[in-house]
């Protein structure tokens, strides 16, 4: 599954709409239905309306009826490692099966870092904190 996620994230990156930053990002996410949903960053002339690749992929999976992220891969800069932005970390936390989910930060098919949500978003605020 890891290799498939990495391959699909690399492919999704090519679909990026990023005429302002020229910074392509692709994400591939395995959800509880066993399928992988992908996404790219989609920029806008009104810069703040930009959507990151991770959120595009999450909204893709959730809009098909999913609510649980099991594993994911992300690729941005091919000369370095691109980690999810703060907003995306929060949105990943909303749907992650647990803090242990694996996140692959990909440079290319043979070069990636394996991390977890807990590692990149310690002390997260999520639904578990509400209604106490
Ligand atoms: N970007 C992502 O797609 N994901 C991230 O986690 C970091 C930033 C995109 C947004 C924008 O289109 C470009 O990268 C430069 O910030």
Automatic annotation (TrEMBL):
Gene Ontology biological-process annotations: nucleobase-containing small molecule metabolic process; pyrimidine-containing compound metabolic process
The keyword Zinc is annotated on this UniProt entry: yes
GO molecular function terms noted in the UniProt entry: cytidine deaminase activity; identical protein binding; zinc ion binding
Positions bound to substrate: 41-47
EC number from the UniProt entry: 3.5.4.5
Binding annotation for Zn(2+): 52, 85, 88
UniProt cofactor(s): Zn(2+)
Domain of life: Bacteria
Record has Ribonucleoprotein as a keyword: no
Catalytic activity: cytidine + H2O + H(+) = uridine + NH4(+); 2'-deoxycytidine + H2O + H(+) = 2'-deoxyuridine + NH4(+)
Domain CMP/dCMP-type deaminase: 1-128
Class in the EC hierarchy, top level: hydrolase
One GO cellular component, as annotated: cytosol
Coiled-coil spans in chain: none
Active site per the UniProt annotation: 54 (proton donor)
Entry-linked SUPFAM superfamilies: Cytidine deaminase-like
UniProt entry keywords in alphabetical sequence: Hydrolase, Metal-binding, Zinc
Functional description taken from the UniProt entry: This enzyme scavenges exogenous and endogenous cytidine and 2'-deoxycytidine for UMP synthesis.
PANTHER family assigned to the protein according to its UniProt record, in alphabetical order: CYTIDINE DEAMINASE
Family affiliation: Belongs to the cytidine and deoxycytidylate deaminase family.
Name of the protein described by the UniProt record: Cytidine deaminase
């Amino acid at each position: 599954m890891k290799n498939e996620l990495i391959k699909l994230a690399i492919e999704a990156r090519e679909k990026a709409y990023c005429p302002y930053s020229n910074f392509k990002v692709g994400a591939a996410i395995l959800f509880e239905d066993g399928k992988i949903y992908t996404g790219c960053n989609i920029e806008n002339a009104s810069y703040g309306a930009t959507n990151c690749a991770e959120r595009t992929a999450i909204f893709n999976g959730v809009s098909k009826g999913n609510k649980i992220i099991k594993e994911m891969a992300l690729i941005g800069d091919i000369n370095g490692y691109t980690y999810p932005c703060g907003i995306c970390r929060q949105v990943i936390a909303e749907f992650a099966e647990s803090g242990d989910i694996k996140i692959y930060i990909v440079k290319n098919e043979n070069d990636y870092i394996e991390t977890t949500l807990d590692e990149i978003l310690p002390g997260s605020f999520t639904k578990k904190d509400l209604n106490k």
